UniProtKB/TrEMBL annotation:
Belongs to the bacterial solute-binding protein 2 family. SUPFAM superfamilies: Periplasmic binding protein-like I (SSF53822). It is found in: Cell envelope. Pfam families: Peripla_BP_4. It comes from Streptomyces doebereineriae. Residues 1-28 form the signal peptide. This is Substrate-binding domain-containing protein.
Length: 350
């Protein structure tokens, strides 16, 4: 998942305990504590009992969908907005050019949308335009890549990169608990990204709980199929024997699996990252090395639309006592394996 940056691990957030499925169900019933709105809904639709409220125009600005996860972000936002008869979505053409995205957001500000949902190509570079929107009285839902100051957004919602690595490490550690001198390797993402550092730190911290498990190699790829294949081939050539692999990203994991198949290797277990449909399908088939993936759920974009609607209608969230939505929502990085893959299949991205 290129360039999306999680909150810093010291940032306080509200942790929802069941990944995006739980977050989507809770946020779907955004309400001002009216009894008719209290019933939570399925992940892909608003609460059935919820009636239309004040019309809300939501401006959505994200980066270019040049990666499966980013494309899923856009699709989740658009599909969620369609579920609400009282929501109009003004969506920009995604861009990785900072100046262009700033211009697109300024256009939305000038159109006087009611709420903005922004997944910035670069959180630091777009902080000023977030501040501009807030000062214009337009609340901002900052999605995943965080602005430099909380003054630039009303609510932040995103994934937990440290938790992603932590849960991957614990899953692998538990699977190798009875094996002495177990060896693991790591296929990371782009090393110049903060999110990659957080995922590796979480993974390393988890492995400290398993003295019988040792990480013997790490290679950084680039979140693409091609880089995943090339870097995995190098790891396989250098490591004739190991017990587990953690791959940070399911898109580059497609390439990694190609390299593994070409090498004829099946002597280890593999854990992926993000939640691609292809990974879910492989996990369900259970006839290869891929046994699990750790979520970085793109359904956060659907939840961001729920939050934006609630802000536009001055409502809170069903299931919480507060009259206002929280300032920060951190989604949980659930581990998906063959025991629960059916539950998450509908959220898998292509």
């Amino acid at each position: 998942m290129p360039q999306h940056t999680s909150r810093f691990t010291s940032r306080r957030g509200l942790l929802f305990g069941t990944a995006a499925v739980g977050a989507g169900a809770l946020l779907a019933g955004c309400t001002s504590n009216d009894s008719s709105d209290d019933e939570p809904a399925a992940n892909d639709q608003p609460a059935a009992a919820e009636s239309s409220g004040k019309p809300v125009t939501i401006g959505f600005a994200g980066p270019q969908a040049d990666h499966g996860w980013l494309n899923a972000i856009n699709d989740n936002a658009k599909n969620r907005a369609k579920k609400y008869s009282d929501v109009t979505l003004e969506i920009t053409e995604g861009s990785n050019d900072t100046a262009q995205q700033i211009g697109q957001i300024e256009t939305l500000i000038n159109k006087k949308v009611d709420v903005l949902v922004v997944l910035p190509a670069d959180g630091k570079a777009l902080t000023q335009v977030g501040l501009k929107a807030m000062r214009a009285g337009i609340p901002v839902v900052n999605l995943d890549r965080i602005f430099n100051t909380p003054q630039a957004y009303r609510c932040w919602i995103g994934g937990d990169n440290y938790g992603m690595g932590l849960n991957a490490g614990h899953y692998i550690g538990e699977k190798l608990k009875g094996k002495s001198n177990a060896k693991v390797i790591e296929l990371a993402g782009l090393d110049n990204l903060e999110l990659t550092k957080q995922r590796t730190k979480g993974f390393d911290d988890a492995l400290k709980n398993y003295p019988n498990v040792r990480k013997v190699a790490r290679q950084a790829a680039e979140f693409t199929v091609e880089s995943g294949q090339a870097k995995m081939a190098q790891l396989l050539q250098a490591q004739s024997s190991f017990d587990a692999l953690w791959n940070h990203d399911d898109d580059q994991g497609v390439g990694a699996l190609r390299a593994i198949d070409q090498a004829g290797r099946d002597d280890f277990l593999m854990v992926g990252g993000a939640g691609a449909l292809s990974a879910f399908q492989a996990i369900k088939q259970d006839n290869g090395v891929l046994k699990a993936t750790v979520l970085y759920p793109p359904t956060m974009a659907a939840s961001a639309i729920d939050l934006a609607r609630a802000l536009g209608q001055s409502k809170g969230i069903s299931g919480l006592s507060e009259f206002e939505i929280p300032a920060s929502l951190t989604l949980y990085s659930a581990v998906v394996d063959k025991t629960n893959v059916d539950q998450y299949m509908s959220t898998g991205f292509k």
